[in-house]
Design brief:
Rossmann fold; 27% strand; four-stranded antiparallel β-sheet; alpha/beta; Alpha-Beta Plaits; 3 domains; 403 residues; seven-stranded mixed β-sheet
Length: 403
């Protein structure tokens, strides 16, 4: 019978622990069946599952390990593992793995307690927990701008929709965002990110800014809100709003562009994506003038938006070409995927309004960002409490991976 042994070592972290143990195990030609290590606040937890060949007596090996661990000032525990239990562990290999990501300004015990309880209720077994956000000093905890913990879990929830709803309710109650996604090869291989512009990349609805300059701000803002909430058709609302802008002087465009406030985390996200080789695009129901301004400012690769018609220095109240509505955004996203030679699974789409739902639904990762309730409820993922650069956490990036 094979001798299987789980060795758990704990104590103050120091160099050479793994070398010391595995060198002793090598004397009996042990096979390493599993190994894992975590260090939290300089405290080590190391686990090694080994098979000791029948031709070797394990007693001298365990005695040597005990002696060496004592010298290192650590603790060790040995646990025999039956072949039956090992076979059960191997059989779990085929289970689907999911990633649950907790995003908040700061992580609390209540958030983790309730998140893990929901996961367990829906048949998920968490087998790895990793902090993705950076270390924070005690003086900075209250001012911390973002925190993230990632949970790796195995299992197949009986009702994924119910699980997502439970996570959404929990997040709303505890000031957090909770993302749930399958851990597959595409999660680590996205190549294109498509952004809505207004209220996503920038903290404005540009058409409302134009309307304010034209003296029709309240009328246009009311129509914008209804359209973004899905209460009225985007194309119809767009025509209504554009008509109210007729006669606006072209000179105000530059002033509005210069005053645009970039959304929290947008510049960091896009600069990081560029350095990592991602392509980025703006797919907007807004206007090319402002999209191209952001393209130059942030280093975005593609811009598709509406072209304001201007005659004799005045806005006519019309746009030229095809209106970029929800259906058009989805169509453009597909075209860009073909252009870049990638699958839709490798595309990320980010938006806040009802007209973003078509592209969010077909992208491999669709994210409702600070979105209207309808959009947040319909999208698979949402971020409401942090900036745009929290998207990096959903891709598995850690703050220490900064490029």
């Amino acid at each position: 019978m094979k001798e299987l042994l789980l060795i758990n070592i704990a104590g103050d972290d120091k160099p050479g622990v793994t070398t010391a143990i595995t060198s002793i195990l090598s004397n009996c030609n042990a096979n390493i069946l599993d190994i894992g290590q975590a260090v939290i606040h300089d405290t080590l937890s190391l686990g090694i599952l080994v098979e000791i060949p029948q031709s070797f007596d394990s007693s001298p090996v365990l005695k040597d390990i005990l002696f060496r661990i004592h010298e290192l000032g650590l603790q060790v525990r040995f646990q025999p593992v039956t072949e039956e239990r090992y076979a059960q562990w191997v059989a779990q290999q085929g289970k689907t793995r999911h990633i649950v990501t907790l995003l908040a300004r700061k992580v609390t015990a209540s958030q983790i307690s309730e998140l893990t309880a929901v996961a367990a209720e829906h048949g998920l077994n968490i087998d790895d927990i990793t902090r993705l956000s950076g270390r924070v000093s005690l003086d900075e905890i209250e001012e911390q701008d973002k925190a993230c913990v990632e949970f790796s879990a195995r299992g197949n929830p009986a009702d994924t929709s119910a699980l997502r709803a439970a996570f959404m309710e929990l997040g709303a109650r505890l000031d957090a965002d909770i993302a749930f996604q399958e851990d597959n090869v595409f999660r680590r291989n996205r190549r294109l990110v498509c952004f809505d512009m207004d209220s996503t990349l920038i903290e404005h609805e540009v058409i409302d800014e134009l309307a304010a300059a034209a003296g029709v701000g309240e009328q246009v803002a009311a129509i914008t809100e209804a359209a973004m909430s899905g209460e009225i058709d985007f194309t119809d609302s767009f025509k209504q709003r554009m008509a109210l802008l007729k006669g606006l002087d072209e000179s105000v465009l530059a002033d509005i562009a210069a005053s645009l406030k970039i959304t929290e985390g947008a510049a960091h996200l896009i600069s990081t994506l560029r350095k990592l080789g991602y392509k980025t695009a703006i797919l907007s129901g807004g206007f090319n003038y402002f999209g191209n301004y952001l393209k130059d400012k942030l280093g975005i690769d593609y811009v598709y938006a509406n072209e304001l018609e201007i005659v004799d220095g005045k806005v006519t109240g019309k746009v030229t070409g095809t209106v970029v509505d929800g259906a058009r955004k989805a169509e453009l996203l597909k075209q860009l995927a073909v252009t870049e030679g990638i699958s839709l699974e490798q595309v990320i789409a980010v938006g806040d309004g009802a007209n973003d739902l078509p592209m969010l639904s077909i992208a491999g990762l669709g994210i409702a960002f600070r979105a209207k309730p309808l959009v947040k409820a319909s999208a698979k993922q949402s971020i409401s409490n942090l900036g745009l650069d929290a998207i990096l956490y959903l891709l598995g990036f850690r703050d220490r991976d900064a490029v």
